[in-house]
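Hi all, long-time lurker, first post. I run a small reading group and we've been trying to get comfortable going from sequence to structure in the token notation. Rather than ask abstract questions, I figured I'd post a concrete chain and ask someone more experienced to write out its structure so we can walk through it together at our next meeting. Sequence below, copied exactly:
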Amino acid sequence: MSFASDIIREAEPYDINQMTHLLEELFSIEDDFTFNEFTQRQGLLMMLDDNEKRCIMIAESGDQIIGMCSAQLLVSTAEGGISALIEDMIVAKSYRGQGIGKRLLLSIEKWAYKKKAKRMQLLADRNNINALDFYKKQKWAATQLICLRKKQERN
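-- Answer (accepted) --
Happy to help. Here is the structure in token form:
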């Protein structure tokens, strides 16, 4: 299938069902996350609730969503301004290698640029060599930083 006819656009609430399936595919290749449909739907609803500070771009072929990438704005003291955190970059397996991921990433970069982000950052699974190679080809550079996390424990 040719990607030239595919559409890259901002996601809408009616896209959540298909985006949830893409997140299931993404989380199946990441060791740090476990797919939970209810939780992922809630997160997507929150992302779509504030289109000034958050954005989800999707790739659509016909009536099927075949890829997505999200970003949200943060304040960076290191940059003295806004930075964009890129997440949930996924192209459905059967559509990879056609330039769709590149187009999605460029569209989210343009969104961040319009929002005056001074820097963009993303997390990638260190074992996902294909993703790391893809980001390197798109001129993303590794840093000396590592990501740590701690979940809030509820009593």
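A couple of things your group might point at:
Residues 46 and 84 are 17 Å apart (CA to CA).
The domain at 3-137 is CATH 3.40.630.30 (Aminopeptidase).
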